[in-house]
Amino acid sequence: MVLNIINGRVWTGNQLEEIGISIEGNKIIKVSNEMNLLKAENTIDAEDNIVFPGCIDVHSHLRDSNLSYKEDFISGTSAALAGGFTTILDMPNTKPPITNVKELIKRQKEASEKIFCNVGFYCSPINNNDIEPLVKSNAIGFKIYLHKPFENQELSRDNIETMMRNIKKNNSILLIHAESSDLFENNNHVVESETVAIEQMIKLAKKTKCKIHIVHVSTNKGLKIIMDNKHKIDISCETTPHHMILNTEEIIEGQHCEPPLRDRNNQQAIFEGIKNGNIDMIATDHAPHTVEEKEQSYPGFPGLEITVPIMFDLFYQEKITLQRIFEVLVKNPVERFKLKNIGQIKEGYNADLILVNEKNNKIIEPKNFLSKAKFTPFKGKKVNGEITATIINGKIGFRNGKILSKPGIGRVLKRTTDFN
Q1: Domain 54-336 carries which CATH code?
Q2: Range(s) for CATH 3.20.20.140 in the chain?
Q3: 252, pLDDT greater than 70
Q4: Cα 139 to the center of its chain, rounded Å
Q5: CATH 2.30.40.10 spans which residues of the chain?
């Protein structure tokens, strides 16, 4: 069965073009003038929307398992489709945590019949000897929380060095929540906690040659340290929409996150880092909780349904280019995590696409989220960036505010088919 997309402005990697797309199975098979498209059984009239590659979130917390009351695979990946994400990478701080092959395989199996988008899974190893079998079991990468190690997880300098050598040996990547445990007494998220942790991990990366990725950078000093070392080691970084846009002068009740929102100077430096290319990616750090938990200052916000619209609103306001949005939400995540056959609207690539109406003004209202988490610091914000449709693996997964597919349309990422 062939699906055609017509009357859209298609992002071809560096510009928008008024061309059409033919999809068959899960692949794009024709990108051409509409008169040259294949005969189709189904056609989407894009109505002058931007047709964009499906976005990739490299930092989500889908919960499920013993935390399914906060979020589960069905609700979390529904939120992803509604927010324009066709691939998300899930963090290991679940309950139970993903620290070994047994738990990884169990989580992959549980997800496979429930997910609406494609999902890869990180691990946080307790035993460094597990790194090779975890990679062989399709771990997308590894993550450590310097300030909050898991039970029985030793994060001494020597043990992290051994971990990094094994990760390097297995051609993988280490993600780091960079807050120093030495400076983290009494939940104290000071700027120095981030900068000291980044400096420590860079020293180990220089020694081990391990590829590292610093998650949710929130400070100008932390970003400067990363930039000063980019030519010396294999390092990348991300930030979140809330660290990019919000600051402590605008805090309202319930805006607690880890790391916390910073002052205006730090926030503006993070915004500039996204604009000028110093920060490689935008990640949601999608962190769902119940409203009651959020009232008790549980850290984090749900981000899957607001991140892409916020970024396209910035494009509409001419504060950021479409090229940068493509880089931070598609191109750089694909290249950094070695994802195969996604991120381009080209013949032969996976048909993971979104339609975005950047001219339609919409108010962010968390009670309408498909996520179980019904809160956001962006509540009431007007954005010009509505996701009108999401195509996942060649099928219409979301359109005009509704999920149209069944659970299991997404796939668990595997090294043999989805990684370069």
Answers
A1: 3.20.20.140
A2: 54-336
A3: no
A4: 16
A5: 2-51+348-360+369-405
Q: What is the mean pLDDT of the chain?
A: 95
Helix runs in 2-121, H state only? 73-82, 101-112
What residues contact 158, with CB distance under 8 A and at least 6 apart?
Answer: none
Q: How far is CA 142 from CA 94, 184, 267, 292, 326, in A?
A: 14, 22, 27, 31, 25
Alpha helical stretches, state H, 153-277: 157-169, 191-208, 220-229, 241-245, 264-276
CATH tag for 2-51+348-360+369-405 (out of 2.30.40.10, 2.40.10.500, 2.60.200.20, 3.40.30.10)? 2.30.40.10
Distance CA 334, CA 349 (A): 13
CA angle 306, 311, 86 (to 5 degrees): 60
Strand order in the sheet with 139-145: 55-60, 85-90, 118-123, 139-145, 173-177, 211-214, 235-239, 281-282
Q: In 3D, which of 323, 194, 303, 176 has the Cα closest to residue 244?
A: 303
Centre a 10 Å sphere on the Cβ of residue 95 and count the other Cβ atoms it contains. Answer: 11
Name the one residue in this structure whose structure tokens are 């400067």: 224
Name residues whose C-beta falls within 8 Å of residue 286's C-beta, 6 or more positions apart in sequence.
57, 59, 60, 61, 62, 76, 79, 88, 301, 302, 303, 304, 371
Helices 191-208 and 220-229 cross at an angle (nearest 10°) of: 10
What confidence score (pLDDT) does residue 188 get? 61
pLDDT of residue 204: 98
Instruction: Indicate the angle between helix axes 220-229 and 264-276, nearest 10 degrees.
Output: 30
Q: Which residue type is seen at 260?
A: P
- CB under 8 Å to 128, separation ≥6 — which residues? 159, 162, 163, 166
Cβ(412)–Cβ(112) below 8 Å: yes
Query: Is 352 one of the annotated active-site residues of the chain?
Result: no
Burial classification of residue 400, based on how many CB atoms lie within 10 Å of its CB (0-12 exposed, 13-18 middle, 19 or more buried): exposed
The 10s digit of each residue's pLDDT in 69-115 is 999 999 999 999 999 999 999 999 999 999 999 999 999 999 999 99
Active-site residue, from 285, 313, 352, 418 = 285
| Max CA pair span of the chain | 65
